[in-house]
Amino acid sequence: MGELYNKDEVEKIRKHIDKWESDVVPQWLKRVPERSNNFTTLSGIPIKRVYTPADLNNFDYEEKLGLPGEYPFTRGIHATMYRARLWTMRMFSGYGGPEETNRRLKFLIEHGETGLSLAFDYPTLVGVDPDDPMAEGEVGIVGVSVPTVVDMEVVFNGIDMGSVTTNMTINPPAPVLLSFYVAVAEKQGVPYNKIGGTTQNDPLKEFIAQKSYVFPPEPAVKVAMDLIEWSVKNLPLWNPISISGYHIREAGATAVQELAFTLADGIEYVRQLKARGLDVDEFAPRLSFFFDAHINFFEETAKFRAARRMWAKIMRDWFGAKKPRSWWLRFHTQTAGVSLTAQQPWNNIVRTAIEALAAVLGGTQSLHTNSFDEPFRVPSEFAAKIALRTQQIIAYETGVADTIDPLAGSYYVEWLTDQIEEEAWKYIDRIERMGGMLEAVKKGFPQREVADAAYRFQKDVEDGRRFIVGVNIFVENEVEDIRKVPLLEFDQKGIEERQRKRIAQVRSSRDQQRWSRALDELRKAAERGDNIMPYVLQAVKAYATLGEIMNTLKEVYGTYVEPPIY
Amino acid sequence: MSLNNSELAVLLDKARRGDLRATGKLLTIMEDPYRLPPEFFDMVASQAGRAHVIGVTGIPGAGKSTLISRLIPELRRRGARVAVIAIDPTSPISGGALLGDRLRMQDHAMDPGVFIRSVSTRGLKGGLSLAALSMIELFDALGYEKILVETVGVGQAEVDIMSAAHTILVVTMPGVGDDVQALKAGVMEIGDIYVLNKSDLPDAQKAYEYLSFALDKGELGSYDSGWTPKLFKVSAVMGQGMAELADAIDEHASYIRSIGLARLKVASRRLTLIRLMSERMLTVAVEEEFKRVKAELEAKALKAKGILAEASEVARRACKNLDNLPPT
Amino acid sequence: MSSPQYIEERPFKVIVAKIGLDGHDRGAKVIARALKDAGFEVVYTGIRQTPEQVARAAVEEDADVIGISILSGAHIHHIQRLMEKLKEMGADDIPVVVGGTIPVIDVDKLKELGVKDVFLPGESLRRITDVIRTLAEERRRKVRLL
Ligand SMILES: Nc1nc2c(ncn2[C@@H]2O[C@H](COP(=O)(O)OP(=O)(O)OP(=O)(O)O)[C@@H](O)[C@H]2O)c(=O)[nH]1
Ligand SMILES: [Mg+2]
Predict the structure, then answer these.
(1) What is the CATH number of domain C13-145?
(2) Which end of chain B is more exposed for a tag (fewer CB within 10 A), N or C?
């Protein structure tokens, strides 16, 4: 029924292959044996010599693929895809203090960018103030330091927050940073229904991979759901969560694990939100995803196609979402940071280009390409520009964006898409049997799977089963060359000092009573189990700092320490 | 590294004066008493005997390390210097080990009154217990008033180590199925204090009721000393229940002191040490002797001649050889 | 006093620690595991450690080698502090190695601070375990009681 290939034809092909394998191939093998007797994808899926229609047994075109913009969206979520609008080239960037970032944002806006993306420094990411001993030496290095509403005001000084959207890569302190943003927007006179952007706000992957967790799993998920619920009701343009496989992959997961764990995280969040009495079609269109584009080209493209098909099914069939928009898996992609090497760093430009191509052929909505100098430091302008140009070359020169889902119908790609989907469902089944991802995370299941995969991969590289150019094949001794890589330089110590001074000033000039009352009310709200968002916003407006708010919440929720999983 | 008494004495003196580096090095030396000059061991032991040794045991993942970490500030507040010996298993294949307990006890780096040391199961039989008992002597001699020893499970090593403890804390958690069943794995009767940790979890109350019931029926805990075992519901991650628990630990300490048991325990741990040490020496002597005559025995073994007789012969000669063996 | 040869030598003890606020523990964990498989006793301290904590752990554990992983870019600052702390505690004889996202110019600076070796992304596990083993052996040979 609905099968793509005629049974008799397939039978003929099958016979042909048998004959080819027994008569033709051996002669060739005798002359030159194959490079490996066990070809596999990075996820370990065995790869055959050649694929034919015989590998697409019972392939029902309409059920598996359909057309772009139609269920199950395997071919893309929009009917016109890149023929209408290219993917968004969203380059995540930032370092230093609010002043530096403000200048940077203005520069980007002058050059026509309206989709801003803020990278925060580590102290901000884990909710620590710049004058905390833990922050020493870390302020402003990997992103901007924003510990108070005053800092956020500086970041957006002279920028109309009603006419830009801002992506904030922030997790446990997401309620605080969103409140900073909202408070400053309000001050600028921007109404809530004009405030647009994204908070990453994906707590489960923090435990699996990114490790910028603060609270234990249960309260961490609770806080994230508070933000989503509040945002759905108050900020119609805000994307309150970006469900992220990227970090899971970077921590060593396979493509299958990345896909399965990310969707399982998504499933958990949908359940949590439904349990709060929200209507699935009210929030589902606001969920977005974030994946890695790794170097194993076809596997990556297949992963993206499988992801769309699976999520559409989950939303429609498991959760009964009615709106087609609720079935969409919209996603941002970043090329694989871990695939970059310190050895022969220029090769990273090539790696990133291939990975970016896989993301585009996989139908991503937006893309960040890494810079070749990232094994050493936050990108220099020079390196970041090449990374952006890489996307532009793909978009404007190669022609790959001119037709939709061009790899569809490749026997290999369709087979691989099916395989990845099948393997991912197996993981999702296991996680479901554990009671969902929150339970699985508490048991350390995905953590262990990822640690094992990371170790396996490293062993494969060590033993020469996997090759990395410049690392275990075509190695050169090129320390002198690496020295020539121009790196970003800035006065980190000076910025740290400035940030400490500013926060001290905020602390001394605020209305102490109003401040302590706000924190007190926040604590009580958290103890009661109320949605904390309104209280965080109130505390932010009373000039409570990021660290103070997080510490207040830690007193109620506790602090997470990871169990030893290797 | 050779060990001579005068150097060791200087090191001990430094350690007593608060040099943590010296303490760390001495622990390494004490870990293997086999290499130790016997007089030095006596020197250490002669300064020991006052510390309160607390065994913390229970199923893997019950939260023992977290609990210890949260208990430390409570004990510190009461003025005690605290030492922790955290015991982790060794990989049987590589001999390597991942020592993970320390991961949860990192909050005390600024406090000179806390010392945490990990030990992993050593190859030779009894090696681990020997190491732990010997290290207890050192910590005790250095004036650590509370010595907490974390062990997992219920092997012979744990039984030996627990014989040195004045107070035994058995830690469990909700949701391990039939709770008493889970406890039964050998620790049913040894606890002076039972700790139901993770009381922040949903089924904690049920588990607590179950355990109190078992305790009331006398199914749980050690009654040998006349002490009535206690049960506490705590949450280590939230730091809840720590003061009450510390009170109970102190109360138990006073109790055993009042009935003279505290001193007996010190004797008992040294007796265990003597037994383990002599076992160890015998093992070594037997191995040595066995290796010497192995080739010869091979032929006999094949001919099925005097198999058992040879065993006693080896043992006898090994004992004789002991006279020539270090330590002397 | 010489010990009979059949007494196993105590395995090497290595502290594997992440200093700073970044959570990228993939490398640290893979190395911890590789060291364990190679017969080392590994004390893994977890993420977000301070230099004080690591120095203290090394002293308390009487470690043979300290391995630090930093991917936050703050390596110079943290390692400087670590070396100071070790010195303060009389433990600067314990060799320190560092891995992470580190520019080559900083490799020189780290070595000037006394770091024995620096491992960049892509470094082979075999070399890392070999270097650590060699450093541990060297230290055992040289170690003094006082
Ligand atoms: N919910 C909750 N979790 C806890 C509590 N105490 C510890 N845990 C968690 O339980 C897990 C194990 O904690 P550990 O302290 O390592 O347990 P352990 O008994 O020392 O474990 P082993 O040494 O491996 O046997 C960790 O994930 C802790 O965070 C608690 O009071 N409540
Ligand atoms: Mg433990």
Answers:
(1) 3.40.50.280
(2) C
